Give the backbone structure.
Amino acid sequence: MKKNTLYRLYSGAFIGICLLPAVLMPFVKSDSSKEKRALSELPKLKTDEGDFNINILSDLGDYFSEHFAFRQQLVTADGRIKTALTATSPNTDVIDGTDGWLYYFETIDDYLNINTMNSRQISGICHDLRLVNDYCERNGKQFIFTSVPNKNSLYPEHMPFNYIPADAPDNYELLSEGLSEDSFYVNMKAVLEDTGSSIPLYHATDTHWNNLGAYAGHCALMGALGREVCPAENWTIEENGRLGDLAAMIYPSEGARDTQVHSDYQFTYEYQGHFNALDDVTIDTVSEKGEGTLLMYRDSFGEAILPYMAEQFSSAEFSRITPYRFDESMLSMGETIIVELVERNLPRLAEAAPLMPAPEISDETVLPVSSVFAGEFKAGENEPVIDWSKIPVCIDQNGAYTLITGALPEEFFSGDEASVFITVNEKTYEAFRASEYSDCGNGFSAYIPADLQFDRIEIFTKCPDGHSIRVEVPSDKFIRKEQ
């Protein structure tokens, strides 16, 4: 009898503990801000169209798994146990390094030097950035492009020993080599490596650089512009100065705090218009100490560098809009144009062209050539049969522009370097090499005036060795974006 009672008490306690997170759900809420992601919402019986939600059970399961009481405390306990005993992270987005360092898993291909872009994609990105620089110069603007290295590219010594990089160049090295002769490019990785700082320039439990790293980046950018920097000195370390975004993913209940570095410099810039947080899509600033105007396209690494840059320009706009816009309305925002992009996102430059009018070409040496892409020939005939599935040409209306974008077969190219031109109504434009329709560097994109009416276009390539191929594309082969 006594033994049965103990069994019943044990079973009751076990079931009670299991039910406790569900019973207390209405009273103990999960804080989504601590996990740096949006938690699922309570599902509805009907969809927005008024139909029965056939996924109601699975949606309820997802909701419960993300909202049960004490979830974040239990996730934190699980994270601490696994990192302490097995040196592995319970979150697939986070890599548990040595000495308390955490890394973002999305950077692993860059670290291992695998799945890198091919040489034609790298060549295309260099080509496109030069088109942007030339366009900015023609409009009296100064253009700067830089890429902030991933944390494990700058501090690989804390990565787990079982991650072994391949003996090959990564995307950053390939692109830096391609842009080594271009004055608009700032090799931020080389800059940060050369600081010789005894204080780490990145946070141990966060994806990003700290204030000192951002200040080093600021100095490099201002140096490339030939301007003075913010005189920040007397740096001190604050032990619990920042919430580490990576630590928050695996230790959400701890409010994990990372060290931060501060100088004694007193900023005077002010925000203009609506300002909520440093991750706002658009932030406008003014500074009485500053000179000139700035338009800076940035990502999350731009948050720490923003105060230094804002201080140096009388007015500045910091934007996270993509694709980048270099049309007339945006160029008017700044005499200086800066694009900052983290290393792990460099492949995006090969996928989407910036919104910028395609340069119109008048040079006779690049006009269409006589060699026409033949594809396959019909038996016994000389008329070319073009496999249009190999030449997707998409037409999309975008405000004052028409975007013509697509991809070309391998026959159009010889080597990795090439220029792509599009002729519309006897006007020839040079296209960007970026395109969502190509994953191998054979793409093209061009923004032309929207008021141009056309029923066909000509596309042709020019390669350094003289190789050139042309194709005429009739309107019935266009892919309309709205379709």
